[in-house]
Amino acid sequence: MQRYETEVIVIGGGATGTGILRDLSIRGIDATLIEKNDIASGTTGRNHGLLHSGARYAVYDLESAQECIKENKILKKIARHCIEDTGGLFVTLYHDNPKYHDLLLERCKLAGIKASEISPMQAMAIEPNLSSHTLKAVKVPDAVIDPFRLTSSNMIDAVERGAKIFTYTAVNKIITSGNDSVGIECINKKNEKIEIYANIIINAAGIWGQHICEIAGIELKMMPSKGSMLIIDYRTNNIVINRCRPPADGDIVVPGDTVSIIGTTSKEIDYDKIDNCNVDDDEIDTLLKNGEDLLPNIRRTRGLRAYCGIRPLMAVSGKVKGRKISRGIVLIDHKERDGMEGLITIAGGKLMTYRLMAEKTCDLICKKLNRKLKCTTHKLPLPGSEKKIPAKQTIKHFSGIPASTVGSTFYRHGQRVHNILTKDKKNYRLICECELVTEGEIEYAIKNLNVKNITDLRRRTRIGMGPCQGELCAYRAAGLFNEYNSTSPEESLKLLKDFLEERWNGIKPVFWGDGLREIELSYWIYQGLFGLGDFGDSDTEEN
Amino acid sequence: MIKLQNISFDHCIKCTICNVYCPVARVSLFPGPKQSGPDTERFRIKSPELVDSTLKLCSNCKRCEIACPSNVKIADIIQEAKWKYLKRRWFRPRDLILSRTDLMGKFATLFNSIVNFFTRRSIVKFFLYLFIGIPYQKTLPEYENGTFEKHFYKNYPDQNKFPDHVVFFHGCFVNYNNHKLGRDLVKVLNSLNVGVNLVKEKCCGVPLIANGYINKAKKNAQYNINSLSEIHEKSNFKIVSTSSSCTYALKNEYSNLLNLDNSAISNEIEYITKFIYDRFESGNIFKMKPVPLRAAYHSPCHLERLGGVIYTIDLLKRIPGLDLVILHSECCGIAGTYGFKKEYYKLSQDIGKDLFRSIETANPEIVITDCETCALQIEMNTQFKVLHPVNILAMAVKE
Amino acid sequence: MYDCLIIGGGLAGLTCGIKCAKEGLRTAIISGGINSLHFSSGSIDLMGYSADKNIIHNPFKHIKSIKRKNPQHPYAKIPVKTIEESITFLTDELKSEKLLFYNNSGKNHFRITAIGATKPTYLSQESVFNEQLDLALKNNTRISILNFEGFRDYYQEFAFSNLKKNSLFNKLNISSGSIKLSFLPDTKKHLLESNSIDIARLFETEKYLPRISEEIKKAAGDSTIITLPAFIGLNNYNKIHKRLLELTGLQIYEIPTLPPSILGMRIDNALKSRFSSLGGEFIAGDKAAGGEIYNHRVTHIYTENYTEATHHAKYYVLSTGSFLSGGLQSGFNKMYEPVFNLQFNWSRKRNKWYSDNFFSAESHPFLSFGVNTNAALHPYDKDGNVIDNLYCIGAVLSDYDPVREASGGGVAVSTACYAAQKIINGIKG
């Protein structure tokens, strides 16, 4: 049994949890984060990665919209390397109600979002693949954000400032003394018990927060709503395209890094299903159909995979459901609500407002700890985003290494590219040929970014996220785990198997056409040629 | 940005087999067709900053496309990326000279003896190397006196007497550098009772595409499409060419690469041996006399891509007395104008090395190949004379 | 007019082509793109696993039982004698191209995989398995699993650790190691970014062989048997393998790894060379785009480059492979056979195309989808009529799972020979 003491325990390694951890570390408060899986493996990593301008919320939820545009501007400064400032369009198609267009413009103005009407011709010029049935278009300051990198950068900064982080460690029990919570008991993958004591415990577990409260003996009701998304093999559009109509299924196509993502459906699910939810076939039909309305040829492209996330919505009032529930931030001091000192729940909100949620939470922590420390996360850039340097300059700096490789590494890691790439051939040789992930990047991630398996490695680097979904690189990655992490060969092969199962889970819903051919080849290689399935039983990672 | 219509790269299943068949990757640091084509295409779509300069090493031999089990137009993707993204100086005298075969031809055929006299001199070659970067080791093609067109109209006025007709797209090489091939073609087709017709044509655009003069290539292509479809519409004649690369461009590259509508003619264009093969198959065979030669046949890359090699081989096999060795199918390295550039000269020689060696081993009396630049490359690197299959067929015609 | 026109030049198409050409039939193969031998193990599987996942030692005995259990299986449509003869036929044809195969006198043997699994197979190249290796397994021999340092497509430790635990190898003394190739000049493609074909070419560069052998000997230590990832030469494989054995004094075996498969390409090369030396015509670079069926017979086919010109033949053979090779195609909620739109066995619901787990013991249903034929391997057109002059062979066929059964090679070769014989009988009367 291991035993630690700290000032604050943060439960949950999503954007909010790591955001809180970073904020605390910057303020100089000792903190430890516990995550039952990998960072950004829950809702944080399971959305479409839109950096909202707030326009989507402006019509129904002005407060959220205002929060959004404010955070949008902050994040564009502090998290430059996680964001690509693509801009966004709201397009009204011929069978959409044109009144919504006017309403949107009016409400955006009210929320302080810079929205400007452009002609359909201009919209088509910006986005050549856009439907020719476009009646009206509005340009908004939407952008795209990579939630994996965002979370990882928050984690690196916190860890470099002395915070601790335990992934694949689940909270078993809240340790109480009288009415106060004083620590947690958790268990890691090796089945070791760990006890951590702290003054304050933050429940930042998102949708799983209900469960954390349950084990603390507190009732907190979440309203899980499943959203599914479909990834297209490459960028079909270079600007975020929103459908200008009341929020509905399949109303957005987001270009994220090398791919495009059609989002999103909305389905109420039972709380006990949150760990085992899959994308349904009818959701794929819906997404494709609606995606096709926006980008007419999108069905001809290859669907790479589909995934779903659970919106962590809090049941504040009983009436509204799903999309229409406020995305407002809920900060609960359980001392006031339930009489339990030392436990705080932060919930609701969205990826966009993670920093604000962290700020509010840390302000409450400081108040409780009686420390007069101010938040600076709105000014302090994340590691990798320190300076505004154009990609061109970095590519030039690493001349001799292919521009595509340098550019992609820079895109993913910002200025940390200098900690990753060297002009040594072994360093910059490609391991993942689809997403241009080099051996150097893998070595860096394994050694510095708290990577426990190939799926974690994927979240930090994009390995195996391209068209082949790990067909060649997964085997290589397993080899490098063996080399850089001294993972035993048996263990490495198990990681390989788990990784391929994890990839498979997302491929199944879009299993046809070239994706099917790709899988036939992968299956032939890993089962027919290698016989990987012949070893042991694979336990699939949860969805 | 990419239009969603042109997305063959999306079909790539990363099987890596194209790399095996890439002659450039075999001898250089070219990362191979997979990496340069479909893999990095996704990044070029994302941002034009992510373009690798190694793209320029691709010689557009299209062997990757022949190998691809997924029908990815790999070479087209790379060509398009080359001219779309790679920076070029606007003034490139060497590329201009190499790509404007028609302009050069028109000029040189006027003063052919002078031009040929000079291009044979090593001092001239040296200056060409020094100032514009044409490797001095290269033998430059010789020019004829006047154009084939002119000779044709003068010497063959009676083509109307034949029951069947074709349009002959002679291309620059026949027009300016090799009249014999044109004459032999007329002889062979006439022996099959097929009359030959010419139309107004411009350079097919292959060298222009290779050197990035896309607008000019499009203009030429449109000119050819118009001119050929006009006569086809009127007369329903098939169109034949003695150049495998011209044929491939007219048939496929006009639409795949230049995005022009060539549907009116693409099915009507045939490489000459396929056309003759079809006559032979339907029983229209001329009387043959033996051609007692030991010959080695080299199949050019673009004819391979066209799937037309077997027709040439079939015709050659029918010629009595011809002792034919079919060489292992390999790229000769010249790839049109590629081998005429000093920066690729060594590469081009390295690529062709195996072929030259196997020709030496076969030790024939002559080499046969369908492609004019392959012929130049082989003549330069071996001591053998190179002929076109039509030349051989003409030798076999019994009058 | 061809006697026999084969669409698809893979293992099945080439075997069929060779058999027809050998009988003097005018035979052509149209092959769009490379075949899947390029991804294969380079061994020919016949029947490796039973339905309950047990390893089969005697494949012919098992094939006999298939006739009862699964009458739709391609093996159920072919006399066992024909299957036996077809394997012999293939072995002989490859032998005449100097590619020698080991056959465990009618029984399966195993091949070692890149991660140290052992898989049952029927024919292996002599550099993958032979009597000497069989003998060595029964004695206390030292064997070393080697790789070239820095090669990214093979990790010897995986093979090493799993073979150590394998009961077949418990008599052996196994070690692992890596071979340094630091003497190579920098100008060529770097070893670090090489794949198997680059290294195979290195082996073909004869001047490097003595140095490579020296380094191999160093890495082998006191082992007498070593394994390398499969790249001992491609075109001059026999010569190089022999020379390597002389230079090192070791027994050297090859283990196939990530594509391109050098072992498979050797078979491909040998079959193609055999086919053309028998006078067959191989059309690469063009692809069959479609065919016309009239009165229950194929009248002609046309190709991608020549959509109007047509190919005519007395008999046609469809050996276009599975989805991977494009012989079968799938789309959103649909599947079809693209050349003739033949009747096709598949499931209408797309979530019935696959199993829940990637490494499910049941494999995946789509692998058994394919063209439905009668007992003579004639397919049906979309109205259900038998097409008399068309045969379907190889992976385009339905009702067998090449991965789960380890039967792909055997089905390809035996259906090919079966169809070829029928065509030969048809032509010669």
Describe this entry's structure for a reader.
The complex is a heterotrimer of chains A (543), B (399) and C (429). By secondary structure, chain A is of the alpha+beta class. Helices cover 37% and strands 22% of the residues of chain A. The radius of gyration of chain A is 23 Å and the shape is globular. Among the domains of chain B are: 78 residues, Alpha-helical ferredoxin (Fumarate Reductase Iron-sulfur Protein, Chain B, domain 2, Orthogonal Bundle), CATH 1.10.1060.10; 111 residues, Rossmann fold, CATH 3.40.50. In chain B, α11 packs across α12. Chain B is globular and about 60 Å long. In chain C, the strands form seven sheets. Chain C has a five-stranded parallel β-sheet, with helices on one face. Chain C has 429 residues and is of the alpha/beta class. Chain C has two domains: 260 residues, 3-Layer(bba) Sandwich (FAD/NAD(P)-binding domain); 127 residues, Rossmann fold. The longest helix of chain C has 21 residues. Classes of the chains: A alpha+beta (543), B alpha/beta (399), C alpha/beta (429). Chains in contact: A-B, A-C, B-C.
Summarize the structure.
The complex is a heterotrimer of chains A (543), B (399) and C (429). Chain A is α+β, with helices and mostly antiparallel strands and 543 residues long.
Helices and strands in order:
The complex is a heterotrimer of chains A (543), B (399) and C (429).
Chain A: E1 2-5, E2 8-11, H1 15-27, E3 31-34, E4 50-51, H2 55-58, H3 62-78, E5 83-84, E6 88-93, H4 99-111, E7 116-118, H5 120-126, E8 134-140, E9 143-145, H6 147-160, E10 164-166, E11 169-177, E12 180-188, E13 193-197, E14 200-203, H7 209-215, E15 222-232, E16 240-243, E17 252-256, E18 259-263, E19 267-268, H8 281-294, E20 303-314, E21 329-333, H9 334-338, E22 343-348, H10 354-369, H11 391-397, H12 403-413, H13 417-420, H14 425-428, E23 430-432, E24 437-438, H15 439-448, H16 454-461, H17 473-484, H18 489-507, H19 513-529
Parallel strand pairs in A: 1-13, 2-3, 2-14, 3-10, 6-16, 14-22
Antiparallel strand pairs in A: 4-9, 5-9, 6-8, 7-8, 11-12, 12-13, 15-18, 15-19, 15-20, 16-17, 17-18, 21-22, 23-24
Helix pairs in contact in A: 1-6, 1-10, 3-4, 11-12, 15-17, 17-18
Chain B: H1 17-20, H2 23-27, H3 33-46, H4 63-67, H5 74-85, H6 93-99, H7 101-110, H8 112-120, H9 122-132, H10 148-155, E1 164-169, H11 171-177, H12 179-191, E2 194-197, H13 206-210, H14 214-235, E3 238-241, H15 244-256, H16 263-266, E4 269-271, H17 272-281, E5 294-298, H18 301-306, H19 309-318, E6 323-326, H20 342-362, E7 366-369, H21 372-381, E8 385-387, H22 389-396
Helix pairs in contact in B: 3-5, 7-8, 7-11, 11-12, 12-22, 17-19
Chain C: E1 2-7, H1 11-22, E2 27-31, H2 59-69, H3 80-96, E3 101-103, E4 109-112, E5 118-121, E6 123-125, H4 131-137, E7 142-148, H5 156-165, E8 173-179, H6 196-204, H7 209-220, E9 225-229, H8 237-248, E10 251-255, H9 262-277, E11 281-284, E12 288-294, E13 297-303, E14 310-311, E15 313-318, E16 329-331, E17 334-336, E18 344-345, E19 370-371, E20 390-392, H10 402-405, H11 408-428
Parallel strand pairs in C: 1-2, 1-15, 2-11, 7-8, 7-9, 9-10, 15-20
Antiparallel strand pairs in C: 3-6, 4-5, 12-13, 13-14, 16-17, 18-19
